[in-house]
């Protein structure tokens, strides 16, 4: 009989060990796939707890055949309550059913004879305590999670608002191009970087020809629509990494291109001029472009490039307009 009992105990512990290893592997596998597998993690944790409690109940019933010691049951139930935090609708039935199985088995084994009331009292008190602890831990974790979630949501909202504010500060509301304020902010850094690596820099100043006359004739709403369409042309030729497009003010725009040689800078400006002329052929809208190109030198400044591009633009405007001026060289339309 003793040998049979020993073998039963041995098999029960072997089964628990194998099941525990399988549960740990499964938990590790599912946790790698969080949050998609969150529901499966919770479900399988509850199943594991149920089997663990059932195992302890069977082992305790074996012990109760020869003694009145429910230690295994008490320890197991308490352990489950600490490590598995469950909602009341799961925790209470799980622990209650396990207690009912234990007491029913105990009554059946003893056949109503030689019952120890301490078994009933101790296991029931422990079951109630375990269910309560499990629910309390769950509630505490839920509060912590809700707090962390609220903080995360608030931080995300602040970040979103900061991004919106950053966009508002950096961009022109009408065109979506970068604004002059942002140009003044980033241009010195671009200048220093190009000077350090000896990368050529092209600065384009672009002005809509006779835009005041267009505004007076067709109204400011039509003028705004014209500026928006122009901005889309400039956006095509900027990537905000090596090329930037800015609304400089009113009907004037600026573009900065890194790494282009002088010929490519002139070709780009001419391409933009021709595209604008073709796009607005019916409205007779054209642009003049002043370009200054060169390698930033220590004796120069970013403002000097802007000033020289502006002078090139002035020459384009005073020389029949609708043309590109690169340094002092004019190319007729």
Automatic annotation (TrEMBL):
Keywords: Membrane, Transmembrane, Transmembrane helix
NCBIfam families in UniProt: GGDEF
Protein origin, superkingdom: Bacteria
Single GO BP term: negative regulation of bacterial-type flagellum-dependent cell motility
Membrane-spanning residues: 6-29, 41-64, 70-87, 115-139
GO molecular function: diguanylate cyclase activity
Gene3D superfamilies reported for this sequence: 3.30.70.270
Entries under PANTHER family matching the protein: DIGUANYLATE CYCLASE DGCM-RELATED (PTHR45138:SF9), REGULATORY COMPONENTS OF SENSORY TRANSDUCTION SYSTEM (PTHR45138)
Magnesium recorded as keyword: no
SMART domains reported for this sequence: GGDEF
GO CC, any one term: plasma membrane
Naturally occurring in which organism (per UniProt): Gehongia tenuis
GGDEF domain mapped to chain residues: 199-329
UniProt keyword annotation of Ubl conjugation present: no
Name of the protein described by the UniProt record: GGDEF domain-containing protein
PROSITE patterns to which the protein is assigned, alphabetical: GGDEF
């Amino acid at each position: 009989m003793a040998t049979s009992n020993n073998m039963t105990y041995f098999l029960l512990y072997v089964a628990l060990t194998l099941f525990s290893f399988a549960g740990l592997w499964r938990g590790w596998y599912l946790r790698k796939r969080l949050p998609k597998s969150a529901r499966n993690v919770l479900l399988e944790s509850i199943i594991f707890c149920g089997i663990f409690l059932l195992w302890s109940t069977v082992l305790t019933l074996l012990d109760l055949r020869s003694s009145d010691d429910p230690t295994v049951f008490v320890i197991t139930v308490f352990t489950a309550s600490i490590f598995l935090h469950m909602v009341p609708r799961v925790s209470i039935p799980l622990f209650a059913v396990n207690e009912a199985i234990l007491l029913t088995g105990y009554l059946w084994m003893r056949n109503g004879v030689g019952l120890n009331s301490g078994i009933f009292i101790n296991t029931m008190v422990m079951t109630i305590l375990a269910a309560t602890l499990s629910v309390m831990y769950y509630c505490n974790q839920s509060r912590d999670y809700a707090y962390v979630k609220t903080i995360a949501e608030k931080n995300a909202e602040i970040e979103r608002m900061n991004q919106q504010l950053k966009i508002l500060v950096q961009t022109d509301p009408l065109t979506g191009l970068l604004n002059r304020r942002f140009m003044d902010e980033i241009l010195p850094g671009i200048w220093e970087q190009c000077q350090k690596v000896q990368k050529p820099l092209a600065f384009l100043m672009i002005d809509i020809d006779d835009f005041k006359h267009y505004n007076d004739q067709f109204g400011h709403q039509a003028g705004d629509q014209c500026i928006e369409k122009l901005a889309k042309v400039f956006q095509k030729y900027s990537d905000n990494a090596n090329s930037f497009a800015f609304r400089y003010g009113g009907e004037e725009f600026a573009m900065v291109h890194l790494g282009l040689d002088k010929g490519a800078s002139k070709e780009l400006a001419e391409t933009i001029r021709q595209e604008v002329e073709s796009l607005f052929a019916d409205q007779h809208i054209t642009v003049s472009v002043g370009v200054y190109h060169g390698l930033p030198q220590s004796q120069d400044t970013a403002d000097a490039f802007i000033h020289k591009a502006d002078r090139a633009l002035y020459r384009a405007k005073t020389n029949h307009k609708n043309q590109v001026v690169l340094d002092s060289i004019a190319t007729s339309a």
